[in-house]
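Minimal example, chain plus S-adenosylmethionine.
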Amino acid sequence: MPPLSMSSVASALRSAGCVFAEDEAELILATARTPDEAAAMLDRRVAGLPLELVLGWAGFRGLRITVEPGVFVPRRRTEFLVEQALAAAPAASVVVDLCCGSGAVGAALAASLDHAELHAADMDPAAARCARRNVGPLGGHVHVGDLFAALPDTLLGRVDILAANVPYVPTGEVPLLPSEARDHEPLVALDGGADGLDVLRRVAAGAPSWLAPGGRLLIETSERQAPLAVETFRRSGLSTRLAVSDEWDAHVVIGTNTS
Ligand SMILES: C[S@@+](CC[C@H](N)C(=O)[O-])C[C@H]1O[C@@H](n2cnc3c(N)ncnc32)[C@H](O)[C@@H]1O
């Protein structure tokens, strides 16, 4: 098969409704190793598969994060959580990425910290498998299980950064999500319960036992949920503030273990 031209790929993508057709065409042609592979990728994208799953990777803080079918695609907005964690604890030596999905958050933290011990955990075995591909090369350990139950007890009281991008879409709003999320990402990665804060509440309640003195818990939330999320952190005994990025429309609750 002859190589596809940039303009023919962009035009097919545009006809399929892709808003950033030129950018996507460039990424597909740069990622495909053969013309046949480029054609197959184009077909999958035109059929509605999210771009990151077509490419097999997502860009996140300058890293190429491997993504696999059935695993949450890391969002650029979550780079703000990583930025806040690094600003709050620039010398962190023990890092946990809870609800890690692909492990993008943990990988980005480990890539910016000197010799940090990294643990990533998720209850979904498919996510854990994917995370292993991303954090393994950085020396990270991946665990499978429900929140803190997945972690080794040796981490109790030692965690400097506990980052958790938990599911936070209220159950009733899941059907309103774009089809790329609804049809291609698992419900367990999206559904945060009636008010979207079920998993956040459990993480905030458990965090103080795992955090080192001065250790930070960081969780992404929405503007609407932020006041209740802040209150939840405070009730668990953490000294709490909210960081907001207008650029990314991102809200991150940051709790510090002051005990
Ligand atoms: C919104 S996704 C975030 C993934 C990743 N941290 C990121 O930012 O790309 C939430 C993740 O939490 C995991 N999860 C949901 N409930 C969990 C639980 N009770 N214990 C462990 N992981 C859970 C899901 O499997 C999913 O991978």
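The longest helix spans residues 198-210. Strands lie at 57-60, 63-66, 94-98, 117-122, 141-144, 159-164, 211-221, 239-245, 250-256.
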